[in-house]
């Protein structure tokens, strides 16, 4: 039995941080970072059957063109992803009353819809990027046993190419779900490696008043290539989502609307339009339309 201190439940039996019961979620789940973006997606739904919020974790479940879908805000960063994915897995794969793992496990489909800045000049603002791989620079996933799901060849190549300071922890690389990749892909979507940082400023090479450990890291990432896969963009969630989902047996895919290009110094003139187009594209693919 999983102890109460390890799987914390609220008085109503819901999981602690997300405030959800198993019946509140669909098998197809869309992640967004910003809680205000949840309704940017569910505004397209035909109906909403459930809505709740606790802290930054806002959840709505409803129907889009006959497909039951849950939309959830995760907040920012790999630490929040650790909470969200583990508690979602508990909802479907642990009996919350007996605190025992279920014999028959459920696999969720998790798609992150986010915004990001491109590191490559040939990936323009307002385009879409699919993360073929997540490159984790954050260390969170290293708390788990990840050897069976990580791509050591890409990790080693990246460490050598960037002369990575191992005192910051060993980067990890996890592939996306091939199942979801086939459902969502199109000729209009760029594919590559998404780097996931553990912070927004120094970890992403931004300098305000503090010097950073490697001022050249972003330029090193710009020209890293492994089997024709470049690092397309830099954000704070994808690798953590891929890692935990792979370990727990869920399908995960990350999609980003590119609203900035750090190589060219450009920013989208209408980032909201780009995000809405990515949302409707993804919803239609999930609904089989």
Task: Provide key terms for this protein.
single chain, alpha/beta, Rossmann fold, five-stranded mixed beta barrel, 7 helices, 14 strands, 29% strand, globular
What is the element layout, followed by pairings?
Layout: E1 28-32, H1 38-42, E2 47-54, E3 57-64, E4 67-73, H2 78-93, E5 94-95, E6 100-101, E7 109-118, E8 128-136, H3 152-162, E9 172-175, H4 178-184, E10 189-196, H5 217-222, E11 225-226, E12 229-235, H6 238-248, E13 251-261, E14 266-267, H7 271-286
Parallel strand pairs: 1-4, 1-7, 7-13, 8-10, 10-12
Antiparallel strand pairs: 2-3, 3-4, 5-6, 7-12, 8-9, 8-13, 11-12, 13-14
Helix pairs in contact: 2-6
Task: Characterise the protein shown here.
The protein has 289 residues and is an alpha/beta fold. The protein has one domain (28-287): Nucleoside phosphorylase domain (Rossmann fold). Helix content is 25%, strand content 29%. The strands form two sheets. Strands 7-12-10-8-13 form a five-stranded mixed β-barrel. Strands 5-6 form a two-stranded antiparallel ribbon. Helix 2 runs parallel beside helix 6. The longest helix is centred in the N-terminal third of the chain and has 16 residues, at 78-93. The protein is globular and about 50 Å long. The model has no long low-confidence stretch (mean pLDDT 95). It holds the Pfam family PNP_UDP_1. It is an enzyme of class 2 (transferase). InterPro entries: Nucleoside_phosphorylase_d, Nucleoside_phosphorylase_sf. Residues 29-264 form the Nucleoside phosphorylase domain.
């Amino acid at each position: 039995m999983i102890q109460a201190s390890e799987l914390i439940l609220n008085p109503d039996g819901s999981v602690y941080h997300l405030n959800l019961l198993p019946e509140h979620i669909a098998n197809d789940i869309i992640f967004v970072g910003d809680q205000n973006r949840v309704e940017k997606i569910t505004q397209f739904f035909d109906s909403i059957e459930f809505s709740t919020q606790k802290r930054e974790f806002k959840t709505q479940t409803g129907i889009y063109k006959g497909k039951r879908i849950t939309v959830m805000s995760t907040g920012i960063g790999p630490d929040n992803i650790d909470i969200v994915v583990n508690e979602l897995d508990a909802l479907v794969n642990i009996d919350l009353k007996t605190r025992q793992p279920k014999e028959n496990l459920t696999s969720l489909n998790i798609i992150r819809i986010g915004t990001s800045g491109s590191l490559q000049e040939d990936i323009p603002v307002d385009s879409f990027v699919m993360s073929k791989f997540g490159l984790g620079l954050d260390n969170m996933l290293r708390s788990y046993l990840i050897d069976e799901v990580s791509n050591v060849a890409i990790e080693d190549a990246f460490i050598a190419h960037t002369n990575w300071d191992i005192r910051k922890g060993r980067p990890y690389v996890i592939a996306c779900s091939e199942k979801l990749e086939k459902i969502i892909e199109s000729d209009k979507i760029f594919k590559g490696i998404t780097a996931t940082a553990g912070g927004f400023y120094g970890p992403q090479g931004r300098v305000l008043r503090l010097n950073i450990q490697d001022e050249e890291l972003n330029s090193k990432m710009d020209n890293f290539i492994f089997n024709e896969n470049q690092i397309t963009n830099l954000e704070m969630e994808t690798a953590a989502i891929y890692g935990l989902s792979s370990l727990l047996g869920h399908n995960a895919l990350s999609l980003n609307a590119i609203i900035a290009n750090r190589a060219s110094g450009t920013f989208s003139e209408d980032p909201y339009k780009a995000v809405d187009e990515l949302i409707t594209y993804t919803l239609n693919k999930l609904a089989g339309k």
